[in-house]
Amino acid sequence: MGAGKSTIGKRLAHVIGAEFIDSDKEIERHTGASIPLIFELEGEAGFRQREAQMIDTLTQQHPIVLATGGGSILNEQNRNHLKNRGKVIYLHATVNQQLQRTHRDQNRPLLQTKNPKQKLTDLFNTRDPLYREIADFIIDTDGRSIHSVSHEIINTLEIMKTS
């Protein structure tokens, strides 16, 4: 959460000539409801079920750059689809950086708590090992520009293609 998936994903898709898709935006588009409303009506479990169906569908499309919601990694089926159907780039950001980037965003249901930093820490501790498990490579985004991160991703993908 707050690592720059959507922002960097859009830039990367533009540079490589692929379509950019954000799985959360696709869920909203297909349901006609916001993520916070889905959480309110169906709970996190209901949202995660919708998310898994969407990731299954989207990971079968090519060529795309897909930004997934931060919690999609919790589902083993999602991890398998992501790992087996494309390249997985883990945009790593520290909890402090995530907090700085998300502190005004009201569209993040999991952060609507009295202690968002603790919530981000708990999420990070659960999700980080799972991201590392499936990542083809990891990019640190703390304090870096969109251009710098995008350039590093493109260079790494080119190296992977030739090796």
SSE blueprint:
Layout: H1 5-16, E1 19-22, H2 23-31, H3 35-58, E2 64-67, H4 76-85, E3 89-92, H5 95-102, H6 116-134, E4 137-140, H7 146-162
Parallel strand pairs: 1-2, 3-4
Helix pairs in contact: 1-7, 2-3, 5-6
What does this structure look like?
- It is a single chain.
- The chain has 163 residues and is mainly α.
- It has a single domain, classed as P-loop containing nucleotide triphosphate hydrolases (Rossmann fold).
- It is 61% helix and 10% strand.
- It is built from seven helices and four strands; from the N terminus they run αβααβαβααβα.
- It has helices at residues 5-16, 23-31, 35-58, 76-85, 95-102, 116-134, 146-162; strands at 19-22, 64-67, 89-92, 137-140.
- The strands form two sheets. It has a two-stranded parallel sheet. A two-stranded parallel ribbon has the order 3-4.
- Helix 1 (5-16) crosses helix 7 and helix 2 (23-31) packs across helix 3 (35-58).
- The radius of gyration is 15 Å and the shape is globular.
- The chain starts with a helix and ends with a helix.
- The mean pLDDT is 91.
Which percent band covers the strand fraction?
A: 5-15%
Assign an overall shape: globular
> How many DSSP E strands?
4
Radius of gyration: 15 Å
Q: Could you state the CATH homologous superfamily?
A: P-loop containing nucleotide triphosphate hydrolases
CATH class: Alpha Beta
For the largest beta sheet, what order do the strands appear in spatially?
A: 1-2
- Characterize the largest beta sheet: strand count, sense, and whether it forms a barrel: 2 strands, parallel
Percent helix = 55-70%
Averaged pLDDT: 91
Q: In the CATH hierarchy, what is the architecture at level 2?
A: 3-Layer(aba) Sandwich
Classify the secondary structure makeup into a structural class: mainly alpha
